[in-house]
Write a structure and sequence with these properties.
The complex is a heterodimer of chains A (113) and B (115). Chain A is mainly beta and 113 residues long. Chain A contains no helices and 11 strands. Chain B is mostly beta strands. Classes of the chains: A mainly beta (113), B mainly beta (115). The interface between A and B is medium-sized, with 22 and 22 residues.
Chain lengths: 113, 115
């Protein structure tokens, strides 16, 4: 099992540019979660999906953020336009409906300059 | 609202000292409980978990945790820490509810172990 795969590992972009983060969950997992981690705010849940359907997006900071899950093996988190305060590590995690805990990806470190 | 409280934000210990990190949650129903560890620059990894049965659970690297239902607590312990245990530790709770599979994380405890 390759685990949860995120890409890219690092992203540096200029303010105002569009950023797309990608995630491939573990095969067979029916939940997918996007988290943001910063020193100031810690680990924040942005959005999560069940069977490709967004269930709770109350953590998405504002309309500049959007997430999609077109199929069971792929999800994207898009920021458009990006701002310096979006700089953080973004983690994707997946789990099965049995509630056995999450498996996290290695994260994408986003720097917006 | 459901929440998870970790009592210490920063803990500094010397090698071979004993460790106990506190975790309390606010939810009256059935829960699954987890501790995750994040080593510097890495992602969160599962340290141990409790679903049912023996309330004392053992995890990787000599860690253990005890679930005390009456106190809504799930404290993490290790009898003798090593420098390599320097990391951030997160307690997490998964309540049995409509949004069953949603993990609620605590704010984390940063542990620094000095040689």
């Amino acid at each position: 099992d390759a685990g949860v795969i995120q890409s890219p590992r690092h992203e540096v972009t200029e303010m105002g540019q569009e950023v797309t983060l990608r995630c491939k969950p573990i095969s067979g997992h029916d939940y997918l979660f996007w988290y943001r981690q910063t020193m100031m705010r810690g680990l924040e849940l942005l959005i999560y999906f069940n069977n490709n359907v967004p269930i709770d997006d109350s953590g998405m900071p504002e309309d500049r953020f959007s997430a999609k899950m077109p199929n069971a093996s792929f999800s994207t988190l898009k920021i458009q336009p990006s701002e310096p305060r979006d700089s953080a590590v973004y983690f994707c995690a997946s789990s099965s409906s049995r509630g056995y805990g999450y498996t996290f990806g290695s994260g994408t470190r986003l720097t917006v300059v | 609202a459901q929440s998870v409280s970790q009592h210490n934000h920063h803990v500094i210990l010397s090698e071979a000292a004993s460790l106990e990190l506190g975790c309390n949650y606010s939810y009256g129903g059935t829960v699954n409980l987890f501790w995750y560890v994040q080593y510097p620059g890495q992602h969160l990894q599962l340290l141990l978990k409790y679903f049912s049965g023996d309330p004392l659970v053992k995890g990787i690297k000599g860690f253990e945790a005890e679930f005390i239902k009456s106190k809504f607590s799930f404290n993490l312990r290790k009898p003798s820490v090593q420098w390599s245990d320097t990391a951030e530790y997160f307690c997490a709770v998964c309540p049995f509810s409509g949004g069953y599979n949603k993990l609620i994380f605590g704010a984390g405890t940063r542990l620094a172990v000095h040689p």
